[in-house]
Amino acid sequence: MSLAALEDVTLRRNGEAVLDAVSLSVDAGEIVTLVGPNGSGKTTLVRTLLGAVPPDSGRVTRRPGLRVGYVPQRLSIDPTLPMTVGRFLRLPNRHPWDAIHTALEDAGLPDVADRPLAALSGGQLQRALLARALIGDPELLILDEPTAGLDQPGAAAFYRRIETLRDSRGCAVLLVSHDLHVVMAASDRVICLNGHVCCEGTPAVVASAPAYRALFGDGTGGALALYRHEHGGHRHEHPHPHHHETANG
Ligand SMILES: Nc1ncnc2c1ncn2[C@@H]1O[C@H](COP(=O)(O)OP(=O)(O)OP(=O)(O)O)[C@@H](O)[C@H]1O
């Protein structure tokens, strides 16, 4: 059984289908990247999958007792509040401190528990949000545009961390992105959303799908560039956009 799935889900707002007969599932341990332009329904899809919004038709299923970690697109509290990172992570469930420290370490942010939240850089804040999502030991980690606001090396490093986390913790990852031209090479599947699912498959399959090109045009020469890091041998610690390998050449 999938961890979470939508089956033929349609959701209307103001007479328009925001989600149009969408089917999607996330299985244990896989990385699924959901890409789509602004307004294509990505956040609505995630909220529907989480059970926060009921669909007008279709079925939403989640494995009973599924543990989900959610990294929101934006922080919903004022990051300038005089609060330490550790206290922020203890909200609202008062998790034990050793769980907080483990999560910070896994998110690549050790030794910051006592620092004010306001003192974190954008990339560090993103990792703090990731740490918060990891505390409950999620089976499914959902990240909504986690690299928005990060520069290319920052985004690449964040994606590497997600890949490592999937490997070490075995959690499934649903990654939402509006970056139409660059996705994590480690994605097992890429799903392109534009109200409906217009194509899906491995990154390489989607990159060469006519529906992808028709929707997302010719940025990056029409290719889907992949954040890929090499295992062993030469390694790009700071990948540059021009160094992205492309799926189809
Ligand atoms: N509660 C609502 N009432 C009316 N319209 C809504 C509501 N929720 C979403 N929509 C509309 O549904 C469409 C999809 O919104 P959604 O936020 O899911 O898109 P998105 O792909 O996540 O966009 P972005 O990349 O900008 O975050 C938008 O046109 C939005 O205006």
UniProtKB/TrEMBL annotation:
SUPFAM superfamilies reported for this sequence: P-loop containing nucleoside triphosphate hydrolases
tRNA processing listed as a keyword: no
GO process annotations (BP): response to zinc ion; zinc ion transport
SMART domains (UniProt xref): AAA
Top-rank lineage group of the source organism: Bacteria
Keywords, alphabetical: ATP-binding, Cell membrane, Hydrolase, Ion transport, Membrane, Nucleotide-binding, Translocase, Transport, Zinc, Zinc transport
Family annotation (Gene3D superfamilies): P-loop containing nucleotide triphosphate hydrolases
UniProt GO molecular function: ATP binding; ATP hydrolysis activity
Keyword Endoplasmic reticulum carried by entry: no
PROSITE patterns for the chain: ABC_TRANSPORTER_1 (PS00211), ABC_TRANSPORTER_2 (PS50893)
Chain segments annotated as coiled-coil in the UniProt record: none
Matches recorded under Pfam families: ABC_tran
EC number: 3.6.3.-
Residue span, ABC transporter domain: 4-219
Signal peptide: none
Name by which UniProt lists this protein: Zinc import ATP-binding protein ZnuC
